[in-house]
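Hey,
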Amino acid sequence: MQDRRLLTVAPQIGVIAFADDVQYPDDPCYGERLALATSANKKKLTDFAVRIHPSLQSPANYSKAFTEAFRLLAATGNNSDSALTNGRRGT
């Protein structure tokens, strides 16, 4: 029987806030690539998402948001070693 752990991809998450510009959580590492879906990262990203307030003054720039989301996906790739752990690379 084949070891199933070899076929498992670590879940990864990210949050992007956008209107006329794109914003990430306070830690700059979250803007580099997706983070591993650890409890600590999920809490940090949830706390960031809860603080997002809609802007009635700025239109939503979906094109910029999707471009940035795909940039994060490309930066992360399929290599789980390149993902973030607890908001930091390789820690």
